[in-house]
Amino acid sequence: MSDNLLLEKQLCFRLYSLNKLMCRLYAPILKELGLTYPQYLAMLVLWQNTEGISVKDLGSQLDLDSGTLSPLLKRMEVQGLLTRVRQSTDERVVIVKLTHKGIVLQQSAEHIPGEMFAVTGLTPDKLQSLNLELDQLIVNISD
Amino acid sequence: MSDNLLLEKQLCFRLYSLNKLMCRLYAPILKELGLTYPQYLAMLVLWQNTEGISVKDLGSQLDLDSGTLSPLLKRMEVQGLLTRVRQSTDERVVIVKLTHKGIVLQQSAEHIPGEMFAVTGLTPDKLQSLNLELDQLIVNISD
DNA sequence: ACAAATAAAGTTGCACGCAACTTAATTGCA
DNA sequence: TGCAATTAAGTTGCGTGCAACTTTATTTGT
Fold it and tell me: Residue limits of the HTH marR-type domain (chains A, B) (predicted)?
């Protein structure tokens, strides 16, 4: 009888836990901006693509399919953060583009990364190396 | 204008991505057992507590509240994996206990950790140290 | 040129996760 | 003792994630 089936031994459980902890950590700050956690991650991409980005490209950066993104973006459109317009050169494609309201929201979010970083108790070097380790894991698993 | 608001710089995004990747990695194997990913994590705890465990204690090990756990356990009860019985000495408490079917399912799960470990491309040492780093992070964040 | 294959986005249905709340039982304290 | 506070579990409502599917548009091969 191996003890491999122990919760404490499982990497997957730590990732499951940490992700939930992160959500809960961000939730109250994001609530002030009127954003959920996945919406915030989407905004991080959109703030780097103010000229607009297709749902497909947004999804590939967030690793989300249209089944998740379409309703999420629809809610953000209702909030007035972005517009969704079909591309005239290829009517299959929908371009997501931040409104003025969506763009200026970035200023209210500037303080968040620093604040969250402080809570992790990591040094910048430790954060950097952990990020690289996790990136390697992402590559290995997603091949 | 800082570049802290970059998706690629965010630890939270890596944890978000990796957790989803883990779910997708486990999903097909767990489907053979008729389990979802959170149900599998619950089974890991229950296999270590065949004498039974309260919903509260199970929740504290999984870091889940009754709002999530109650319906999840109800579904697993329907599947015949466990029973839920109110404790006679304290009628507030519900004891979750695996059925025979739930207990013997462990045998079908024995191969999973090894299989999943192989995919990570980690050495045992690397896995160990990563687990410790993540544990430290969990402690720092959840205080 | 045109039918088959492919691609992009959206819809549906289900299982979480969690905030906010309700219900029922137990504890604690004046 | 009696009643307020606390505790355990469950319910409700909403926002993801994702599988499976549909719809519409474009591309590909002959």
Answer: 8-139
pLDDT of the residue at A7:
82
CB contact under 8 A, A44 and B13: yes
Q: Looking at the predicted structure, is the pLDDT value of residue A1 above 60?
A: no
Chain C bases near protein Cβ (<7 Å): 7-13, 15-21, 24-27
What is the crossing angle of helices A11-33 and B11-33, to 10°? 130
Can you name the residues that pair with A97 across neighbouring β-strands?
Answer: A83
Q: The pTM is what? A: 0.95
Say how far apart CA A33 and CA A29 lie, in whole Å.
Answer: 7
Q: Domain residue spans in chain A?
A: 13-110
In this predicted structure, what is the pLDDT of residue A9? 82
Chain A residues with CB under 8 Å of B116 CB are 12
Task: Compute the radius of gyration of chain A from its Cα atoms.
Answer: 18
| Pairwise CB contact (< 8 Å): A21 & B141 | yes
Q: What does the pLDDT average to over A122-141?
A: 95
Contacts of B48 in chain A (CB under 8 A): 6-7
Residue A4: the pLDDT is: 87
C-alpha angle B39-B112-B141 in degrees, rounded to nearest 5: 60
CATH class (in words) of the domain with range A13-110: mainly alpha
pLDDT of residue A143: 77
Strands (E), A36-128: 53-54, 82-86, 94-98
